[in-house]
Amino acid sequence: MTVIRADVLGYCMGVRRAVDLAERAVAAGGTVLSLGPLIHNAVALMELEQRGLSVVPADALAAVPRNSTVVIRAHGVPPAVPQALSERSCTVVDATCPFVMRSQKIAVRFSEDGWTVILAGQKNHGEVIGIAGYAGERFILVQNRAEAALLPPGGDGERAVLLAQSTFPAEEFRGIADVVKKKYAVLRVIDTLCAATYDRQESLKRLCPLVDGVLVIGGKLSANTAQLFATAQLCCRYAALIETAAEIPPVFFSLETVGLSAGASTPDSVIDAVERRLQSTVA
After folding, report:
1. Residue 123, burial from CB neighbour count under 10 angstroms (0-12, 13-18, 19+)
2. 127 an active-site residue?
3. pLDDT tens figures, 94-135
4. Which of 23, 49, 127, 158 is catalytic?
């Protein structure tokens, strides 16, 4: 069997930075935790927990011990959260992805200037909740073109800015922008999509014609991994989404050429393990 990796796969810069910051915090000692999962990958989270990083629910601030170290997850949090942690005498390690942090800064700037902030994103996603906190009362979430079409027309002189959750599908974002443009006399569209998501998508598209099947490796809760899997299903006869090597479907062991793609939260060690398993002699 020949295994071909996509030329871009696995940890993105933001995720690698978050993991590195968490590992340093744990190594420094003391009680270290994150509010909600640091990243969307069960294997990586388990390894971090084994090293000493505890995870508490994102809405469980009252459960955070005083004087502990809290790592802000890569998806970011509303601005009220670090303030509340500071009041509990906690040390805050901000591991928010720089791409997400940019969106937060844009949201607060436009909101303070009186603009309506519209975000194309997924309801209840951690990144969306954080950006909404920065936008305040002037925030509107749209999940697709159909929801955008239901928005009421902007009032006289109302200004709006359209942003995107960093892992939102690019084509859907462009479609939403076309719809929203008809609602507001003044609309700024700012592309806040993550380049890492786009790069992995394009890399997968280049890979698919070269292989008989594709394994997309990543967390089942990861938005960008889910998008990779959707693309693989369209481009390959055989496509599967797996979190670990143990989940490889038997049919892949009979293929001559298998491609590997991986979400932006997938550790190198998991990708390596999948490749070793494919090349083993026992299915």
Report:
1. exposed
2. yes
3. 999 999 999 999 999 999 999 999 999 999 999 999 999 999
4. 127
